[in-house]
Design a protein that fits this description.
By secondary structure, this protein is α/β, with parallel strands linked by helices. The chain folds into two domains: 3-62, no CATH class; 156-437, pyruvate-formate lyase- activating enzyme, CATH 3.80.30.30. Helices cover 37% and strands 18% of the residues. It has 19 helices and 17 strands. It has helices spanning 3-12, 18-35, 39-44, 51-62, 110-118, 130-134, 141-145, 193-196, 208-211, 217-220, 243-246, 249-256, 274-279, 294-300, 307-319, 337-351, 371-378, 401-416, 431-437; strands at 99-102, 123-126, 150-154, 161-163, 175-178, 187-188, 202-205, 229-233, 262-268, 285-291, 301-302, 323-331, 357-364, 366-368, 389-391, 396-399, 423-426. It has an eight-stranded mixed β-sheet with strand order 4-5-8-9-10-12-13-17. Strands 2-1-3-7 form a four-stranded parallel β-sheet, with no helix packed on it. Strands 14-16-15 form a three-stranded antiparallel β-sheet. A hairpin with a 4-residue loop joins strand 15 and strand 16. Helix 15 runs parallel beside helix 16. It is globular.
């Protein structure tokens, strides 16, 4: 609190305890930010003194379309604390790690040779294992902010291949994941990694070729809505952003090219497609881009290529013989969202050959509740959290189902108007939302 706000608050509500003060000040700060008025002005507009009435008045003002539709427990009101030192650096800069940490066997690989060539001035340190290294290095948000200073070349032993870990009770899209590492140089304000990753660096496994010799993973892959098995990368890192360093796309394409019962997806925001084009296209290799409205990309996807550049890369891949796909995830609700997302759908079909597009996924903005505080600290100017995000059964923040149904319905209809044969599906949504979205009507 500022001194003036503290004095006004104490004079107005002298009997509020710690929890009531926390919730009230949280609502005041959020209303202040949303409406562009001072916190003192918000506080002075409240004439009531009883806590339950004060809270209701502020909740109605903060959540005008959601209040009354959900229980009071749906409004997540943690203590509002920010530290300017935790602000993310959103200025564009090349990936150039200062420190390279590697396990002994990594030094015998071509990956290590490429890293040495690309980053000759970095400090190189051999480590026994990432687990041992991390015992003396507790993770923090400030450590995450400096993750691009550190590159770890480690041995993947357990988590190279797995089924997509869907939230309980949501419709499973049959996705299986190949893990190409962890960490991303982009600064997307909504990224789940900022609240999930516990290593202050970029992790790249040096032994993926060992797994690409193993046919046992293919029968384990789940079936997609089209009936094909679908395997992809891009859960814990962007699939292609480091491909000029790793060259991973080359052995992956070689492994999957002739396994035509499997669709392999590179999910990315990057335009780092040189290795893909050099390998030559294949219809069962899918180059897929995460996309957004241009406004939301500019305001939330820092350091990533703009939408036009992503679609240009998608077109190049399609013309080279690859299939393509697009992921609208997260779809963010804002004043002019229909115009913004409609424009991006139009741009996709105006730029990329429609026959190349295998699927388009739709996912509304969602995040673990604890990530709210991380975003407030890392992106204090972001409007992302100004929306009416409510606490769900899975302890994630989401828009009310009415908003999600409206967004999904609009997007589905716009895509259908293009006469596309691409499969359209929802990400991390319950069956009732699928039904109400109109996707299968």
């Amino acid at each position: 609190m500022t001194d003036k706000l503290d004095k006004v608050f104490t004079a107005r509500f002298p009997k509020f305890g710690v929890n009531k003060t926390r919730e009230t000040m949280r609502l005041i700060s959020e209303i202040s930010k949303r409406e562009g008025v001072t916190p003192v002005a918000v506080l002075e507009s409240v004439t009531e003194k009883d806590y339950s009435v004060v809270k209701e008045v502020l909740l109605r003002r903060r959540y005008p379309s959601s209040f009354g539709k959900v229980p009071l427990s749906s409004f997540y009101l943690p203590k509002h604390e920010t530290d300017p030192a935790l602000k993310a650096n959103i200025l564009p800069e090349p990936f150039s790690p200062k420190n390279i940490y590697f396990q002994k066997k990594a030094a015998q690989t071509g990956l290590f040779d490429r890293v040495k060539t690309l980053f000759p001035k970095a400090n190189y340190t051999e480590i026994a294992s990432l687990k041992e290294f991390m015992k003396e290095l507790p993770f923090s948000v400030s450590g995450y902010n400096r993750r691009c200073e550190n590159l770890f070349l480690t041995e993947e032993k357990y988590d190279f291949f797995k089924k997509c870990p869907c939230t309980s009770k949501v419709v499973n899209c049959g996705y299986s994941i190949i893990n190409l590492g962890m960490g991303c140089p982009y600064e997307c304000s909504y990224c789940f990694l900022q609240g999930y990753q516990n290593v202050p660096g970029i992790i790249i496994p040096f032994n993926i070729e060992e797994y690409l010799k193993d046919e046992r993973m293919l029968p384990l892959a789940g079936s997609f809505v089209s009936g094909s098995k679908r395997i992809g990368s891009g859960e814990f890192t962007d699939s292609l952003v480091f491909d000029d360093i790793t060259g991973f796309s080359k052995p992956i394409i070689s492994f999957f090219r002739n396994r035509t019962d499997v669709l392999f997806e590179f999910k990315t925001k990057s335009i780092n497609i040189k290795n893909l084009l050099g390998c030559g296209g294949a219809a069962n290799i899918v180059a897929a881009w995460s996309v957004n409205s241009r406004k939301m990309a500019q305001e939330n996807e820092f350091k990533a290529p703009d939408i036009e550049a992503r679609l240009k890369a998608a077109k190049e891949c399609a013309l080279a013989g690859f299939s393509t796909a697009f992921h609208f995830d997260p779809i963010i609700f804002y004043d002019d969202w229909k115009s913004g997302y409609g424009e991006t759908i139009d741009m996709i079909f105006d730029t990329v050959p429609a026959e190349s597009i295998k699927w388009i996924s739709l996912g509304a903005l969602r995040m673990p509740a604890a990530q709210k505080i991380i975003i407030e600290n890392r992106f204090p100017d972001s409007k992302l959290l100004d929306g009416e995000l409510l606490l769900g059964k899975d302890y994630k923040l989401r828009y009310h189902e009415d908003i999600r149904n409206e967004m999904f319905g609009f997007m589905a209809e716009r895509i259908k108007s293009k006469k596309s044969k691409a499969a359209v599906y929802l990400c991390m949504e319950e069956a009732e939302i699928w039904k109400n979205s109109g996707i299968f009507q």
